[in-house]
Amino acid sequence: MSAKYAILGLVIERPGYGYQLAQRLEERFGSSAFAPSGVYSALDQLSRDEFVRAAGEMGPGPARRAAPRMIYEATDEGVDHFEAWILGASPTPPVRDELHMKIALCRPANLPRLIDLVNGQELACAGRLSDLRQSFGRERVGDCQDWSRLVRVLAKDAEVALWEARIDWLRSARELLQGLLDQLRRSQEHSVLESSGGRLGRPARVLQSTPRLAPRAHAEASRSVQANI
Question: 53 has which bridge partners?
């Protein structure tokens, strides 16, 4: 999703210059991971479309080491365009998650590393959720009296719900993949014992080659993981 409409909405709320708008964008939509450079690209596009215009300059400040900063405000056409976007239908977002694709396409030999990747992302998402809750505080929709605060809290609630759902899916995927890995290792150990006639000897390394039942197990696990997405 482009930052264009987010920037236009912020300018309609309150005029500002590029860096200031980038800060407000991060505060309001931090989980969306908009690049700072996208703010200036959006302002350029909005200016070309005559949805925003220059409303003056702000001085470089006491240090006087920076160039004057251009302040942008919304035009009447920009407000109308934004209202049309607000009232228009929003498409259902496609599922184009890289980790999801890796799980769907992995081979049995990839399982140990893939489990590590899922676990790492689970921890990272838990950290993001913790940071979001700290910045959010204890404020809830029912506690808000003014409109601007209410919609901000509602948006934060949506972010929290998305991170919680992501963590739940990652936990489920990790457990399913770990179960498949344990099954494959037991199958290999059983095959080694059968081939040696039950004789005890030096333990064989497991998961160095794919056991005969791996394709079937792999297909079953892929279906199980995708069913939980």
Answer: 73
